[in-house]
């Protein structure tokens, strides 16, 4: 799981993540990864319109990640976090709409480029609003 938070909040989010891990008694077997990126103007970018700090958390594949990931996601969202599109998150398009200011713009391009929904799959159906034609 990886979330992008506003860069200026990154130190505070990391401190809260450490507290959450300790309070929850989570066993963490991988390092927490942290990186930064400059703001951009790409509609579905996690850095769209803001300098961003990225926090990636991992779990060993034989460990049940759900309690830890749900707790981490709740924390990241409380700081305006945006999920990495290619990593684990539990959000649906209704929640993503408020996190990605240009999601509607992207969806209008999607509608014109793929009006029949050829590139749909279960993940896309969960994270992007349905096509107006209901395909």
Report what the structure shows.
There is one protein chain. With 135 residues, the chain is α+β, with helices and mostly antiparallel strands. It is 39% helix and 13% strand. The protein has helices at 10-24, 66-78, 93-99, 103-113, 122-127, and strands spanning 2-6, 33-37, 52-56, 82-83. Strands 2-3-1-4 form a four-stranded antiparallel beta sheet, covered by helices on one side. The chain is globular and about 50 Å long. It starts with a strand and ends in an 8-residue tail after the last helix.
Helices and strands in order:
Layout: E1 2-6, H1 10-24, E2 33-37, E3 52-56, H2 66-78, E4 82-83, H3 93-99, H4 103-113, H5 122-127
CATH class of the domain at 2-90: Alpha Beta
Largest sheet properties = 4 strands, antiparallel
What level of helicity do the residues show?
25-40%
Strand content: 5-15%
The DSSP helix count reads 5
- From the alpha carbons, calculate the radius of gyration and give it in angstroms: 16 Å
Content-based structural category: alpha+beta
Poorly predicted sequence stretches spanning 5 or more consecutive residues: none
Instruction: Report the order of strands and helices.
Output: EHEEHEHHH
* Overall 3D shape: globular
Question: What fold name stands as the CATH topology of the domain at 2-90?
Answer: Alpha-Beta Plaits
Oligomer: single chain
Distance between the termini: 30 Å
Q: Would you tell me the overall average pLDDT?
A: 92
- Strand count: 4
**CATH architecture heading of the domain at 2-90:** 2-Layer Sandwich
